[in-house]
Thioesterase (Allosphingosinicella humi), 156 residues
Amino acid sequence: MTRPKAEPKHAGADAHYRALESLYRQAPVNGLFDSSLEIVEEGFARIRFQVDECHYHAAGAAHGTLYFKMMDDAAFYACNSLVTDRFLLTTAFNLNFTRPLKAGEVVAEGRWVSGRRRVFVAEARLIDGTGEEAARGTGTFMRSHIPLTSLAGYQG
């Protein structure tokens, strides 16, 4: 007699993570960037992206909007990995620039810090191609009234 295979312990969580990654890929704004999201584990997200000269400000380094966008997304997805029913919204983000970014691969890491009910806090950082930190920040996120399942890109 063959026993049915047990469902992997984190199959539900993994499905949620993959659905969030799909949501990221399908967001129209992300078509503007060469980037990919990986939710590594609960509360930890990583975005790999390419900085190109088209992202530069007049002085020849990446504009701060790129720093903010990637750090906000990494922190957001780290927090939303803990929430399976609702889309979160950014309510605040504090950003500290530590070095300029030039063309090449950069990694944004977001890590959940606190909160599990209504408000969530996460830290984020950018690591350049040499392994140096280029920025650090903290974001605050809250539950919205938008069900994740109502969003076309979320396939959970």
The first strand starts at residue 35 and ends at 41. Residues 3-9 have pLDDT under 50 and may be disordered. The CA atoms of residues 92 and 140 lie 5 Å apart.
